[in-house]
Each structure stands twice: as C-alpha cells, then as structure tokens.
Design brief:
Length: about 375
Amino acid sequence: MFDKWLDLEHQFQTGRISRRELFRKSMKYGLSFVAANAFVAAIANPSASPLGSPAWAQGTLASTEKLNVVMVTIQRAGDLGPVDAMISGLKRGAEELNYNFRVVEALQGEYQGAIEASAAEKPDLIIGLFPPMADPLERAARQHPDIRFANLVGIVPEGVPNLKSVWHAGQEGTFLTGALAGLVAAKNELGVESNTLGVVLAVENSEQHGYLAGYQQGYKTTNTNGTILHNVIGGNSPFEDPTKAAQLAGVLRERGAGIIGVSGGKSQHGVLTTARRARFLTLGMDNDQCLQYPSTTIASMLVFLDQWVYDVMNEVRTGTWKPGHHYVGLRDRALDICPYTNEKHQLGPKLPKVIHDTVANLREKVFSGEIKVAAKPAI
C-alpha cells in the first residue's frame, strides 16, 4: 500500500527528483500542505521521524491546519437523541478544533459504499455510527492506512492501528434510572400505583439487552416485589418507528406497567409522547428527556455521545490517537443519570429526600465498582 511513497523516496534519494518535486508529487498524491512538508522532512532527514509513517502517526498536527472529518450514520438526523447528539459534538469539534465536516446518512445495504466513497475524499477521520458499521469500517481501515476510522457505539477488532471503537456500559445508566423507578413504584410516589416496569426495546442485540439488564437489576434492587415486562419494535426501521413504539407502550400499559423505560433512537419518542394520554410515567435515554417531556419523565439516562465525537476528533488533532476497542462507563464520565432533582425538572424535585439519597448512594457504589451491573438480561 505504501509502494508509491517508497518509490517517491527512492526517486529522491537517487537524485531523479528534487526536494521541490518531491513536495509537489506528495501533494498530488493526496497529502495536505502540512502533511507533505512532514513527509519531505522525513525523507530528507531520516533520523528526524519514522519513514513510512502517515503524518498523523508522527505527533501533533499543526493547529492551523484545516482537517477533514466525515460522519456516516445508519440512522437519520432529527431523532432528538443519539444521532443529533453526535452531530452536535461534530459541530463543536469542527469549530473548536479546526475541522471541515460532512454528515452522510447511509441506507441499509449501502454502508460499505458510503464508507468507501467517503474514504475516496481522503479525509483525516471517518466516524461510523452504531454496530452495523463495524465491518465496513474495518475493511476500509485496512485498505486506507493513512485515514483514521472510528466506530462509535460499536466494536472493532484490535490490531488495526488506524481503527478504533467505543462501546459503553449502558446497563450502568439504566440500572440507576431503573432503581429510581423501583423506589417510585414501591412507595406509590407521583401517582404510580403499579409495581410493574415496562421497557420498549428497539431490537434484540447486545446493546439493547444491556439496557434491559440494567433496568431489571436496578428495579429489583429497590423493589423486590416488582415485575419487569418488555417488548421489541423490530422491523425494517426499529430505531425510527415511533408509531410502533407507541403501540407497544400501550400494550405494556394494558398489562399493568405504571412506568415505561425507553431505548431506541427516534422510536423512543413514540413512547414519550403517548405517556400523558395513556397515563404512565417514563424513563428517558441519551439526552435529558425530563426537559422535553417534563410532566411524565421521571429521569433520563444520559449518554455523552457528543463528547465521544469531540474526543476522537481531538485525538486526531493532538496526535494522541488510541486505536482498538474502548469500553467506557460511569467512571469514565461516558454516561450518567440526569440531574433529575434540580429545579429545572418537574417530577424529580417532588420525590422525598430518602429516594434522592438512595439513588445517590447506589450511584456511588456503581462508580466505585462495589455494584457490578450485569450486561445480559434475565430473559
């Protein structure tokens, strides 16, 4: 893959091209002005930096150099949830870290093509969102070693120096919101008269099962007599089907659920929007949905996906790129329960202090590792 660069080096070392021509051809082959300078310096002074290494592997890039990043998502923007949060982080990173950016919405069956088309533009970084992007990103990373690839909310193999992934212990967040729901139900707070917690999942996969496991463990920790029911959206657009999510929430309500937890991109808004009419309370996810649905959402699990994006962009900018798989959780400040007790929230402040204190104590135990939250549900 580095044949053309090795050939350029050989031409320069044998006197067939000048330093100026070496620089010109480097830019013709796709290097930026700064990267081409770094390459020429490496060839002209071999002891100064490692030959054959892409410019991003040689240390911090000049902050004045405009970098380029492409985000490829399999879920559409406008979900008021994870995709919008990650695009927000992308925009902040572009502004603060000096990037050009572009967002690509890839259709099912076109993931590899979208990644390859983006790689043909030779950006500095390509970010693919969610687990189905893992294989396309790995293939592209092996074919384009001079581009960094990141799978956020996904898992990629170790050993590819320009490829990384970030996956979260989402069960730690739903454990906390589930524990709060268990207390509310056990003590009949906020008008809840049922000991049944419902959960609407998007699909059957390890991420969604982790959320369910957290809900289950948290709820049973504080409400030993409680029951947890769940159903699954499925279909062709499980993360973008709020109508079906609302229907499934109605089924859970009919089966006795007084509180329903969500999980599933845009689909979860189907649950949240129908809660008031169907007379149940909810647990939000991703961003603080207590502020979006104040009269029915008790608390939300926050996933700081915007910061994940920013951090990956910053690694490229500062030359601190860390390849491989990274598993993050509460201790890494990657997720948390929302500040449901503060004055900006409608329902949380109505709860007695003993409930606030109990959830805070459980949070500290998860943070310290005293409480281990299972990643697999009891189903």
